[in-house]
Design brief:
With 277 residues, this protein is α+β, with helices and mostly antiparallel strands. Helix content is 35%, strand content 25%.
């Protein structure tokens, strides 16, 4: 099944029962948090430590490469700091959301490490499972709410490839997700409630020396989501021992040509990354 990551650019994994239960709780908690007054949500800070960040962001800018949305980022490595803020704010919906995010990451651990083991064997990626395990505290769950009041057919999530190792698309409340296939054609990708969708990211393209391509994707507003908005939950699984894209030097991936990396020789692709020390 992992050969689909190379041939199609994505793969599906059926939800284990514990992931499905944890995910539904997380969806419910996120929707309750989104329903809070804007001033209450904005009291939740966005915190950075080195390259990492957790917390709440509200982005209301529009235009090319700009998504109108609110996000909440959660990771195990900064959970204690985040929980301390929730206690200080005395914000029950945030407590519940952090609890359910923690449970979701825990439930994802076994299937994602099993996947890493399979990828390591199939693509000869020595040490990938061990690296994924060491990186687990910095897997990031991103809760996303795209706002309504947009035009049907417009991009509500700009075309991009993700920077981490793998991205697990866990929940999409409606249609509209599209990916750029390896021939340069945008295709609609349907989600279902029985399986998660896995995409290889920039670090995985580096780690596999170009065998696996970081998949470009976007979200286009449907008639429904243009009016009422859209909710999604994803988990970015970074690889701590693998170089990262040098954003300070090359800029944002959203500003680059979609699919630029598909045919790029690995020697050129590697130049996009922070040099290994």
């Amino acid at each position: 099944m992992v050969d689909m990551l190379q041939s199609r650019g994505y793969m599906r994994i059926p939800y284990p029962s514990d992931v499905r239960i944890a995910l539904q709780r997380a969806v419910d908690s996120w929707e309750r948090f989104c329903a809070l007054d804007a001033k209450i949500k904005q009291s939740v800070p966005y915190m950075r430590r080195d390259q990492l960040g957790v917390g709440y962001e509200c982005k209301l800018e529009s235009g090319k490469g700009k998504d109108r949305k609110e996000n909440l980022h959660v990771m195990i490595a900064m959970m204690q700091e985040f929980e301390a803020i929730a206690r200080h704010l005395d914000l029950a919906p945030l407590h519940e959301l952090l609890r359910d995010a923690h449970m979701l990451i825990g439930a994802l651990s076994a299937p994602m490490l099993a996947l890493a083991r399979e990828l390591e064997h199939h693509y000869k990626l020595h040490g990938l499972e061990r690296e994924m395990l060491r990186s687990r505290p910095e897997w990031m769950v991103r809760f996303i709410h795209y706002f309504g009041d947009q035009e049907a057919g417009s991009e509500i999530a700009s075309a991009h490839a993700d920077k981490s190792g793998l991205t697990s698309h866990l929940y999409e409340s409606d249609h509209g997700f599209e990916y750029l296939d390896h021939r340069g054609r945008w295709r609609r990708l349907a989600f279902n409630r029985a399986s998660m969708m896995l995409l290889p990211d920039m670090q995985m393209q580096y780690r596999s020396k170009g065998e696996l391509k970081a998949l470009w994707h976007r979200v286009v507003a449907t008639e429904q989501t243009a009016k009422h908005g859209r909710v999604s939950i994803v988990c970015f699984m970074s690889l701590l021992a693998t170089p990262v894209v040098d954003k300070s030097r090359i800029g944002r991936l959203q500003d680059m040509s979609p699919g630029f990396n598909y045919e790029m020789p690995f020697a050129e692709f590697a130049k996009l990354f922070v040099k290994e020390k």
